[in-house]
Specification:
The model has no long low-confidence stretch (mean pLDDT 94). This protein has 178 residues and is α/β, with parallel strands linked by helices. It has a seven-stranded parallel β-sheet, sandwiched between helices. The chain has six helices and seven strands; from the N terminus they run βαβαββαβαβαβα. Helix 5 links the parallel strand 6 (130-134) and strand 7. Helices cover 40% and strands 19% of the residues. The chain is globular.
Length: 178
Amino acid sequence: MKEYATLFGGAGNNTQSKEYLETVEIGGFLAYRGYIVKNGGYGGMMEAVSKGAFKEGGKVIGVTCRQVGAPIGNIYLSETIVTDNLYDRLKILIENTSVFIVQKGGIGTLSEVFLALDIIRKSPKNKQSKLYFIGGIWSDLVACLKLDLIPASEHGLFHVVENFIELRKRMEIDFPLK
């Protein structure tokens, strides 16, 4: 069975930022681990994860959306799926995904994360996807959610890691190679 990993993250175009460079490494790691990488298909973090997976020889699916931009995605995509609206785009990005990686982003990233979280929490425990937030920027938000909004029984849905090195270690524990 194919395993999918989806990255949610901003479309900023600073290709020298710490987050961009780290996300290239994340894409390579996901491809090395055999995941088919899905993302929104455009620039920024989406391009970075695509670039890393592409360079590692992995398959990358970009899901673009006529409602928010051009149907053509970044140059590192193996396949582009064009949707008419955000709802269809999110459905494809979330469906059948085992691993979600959340990198720095804005309102769009937050909407993707919260929908994915709601779907994950309603899945049977033995079929719940893993969701990893990259960077300290997520620590305060996750702490606030755990304190006031999310019941303790669902705190395990959130995995905040500081950087790619911590992500790799965490994933190697959560998903050991067979």
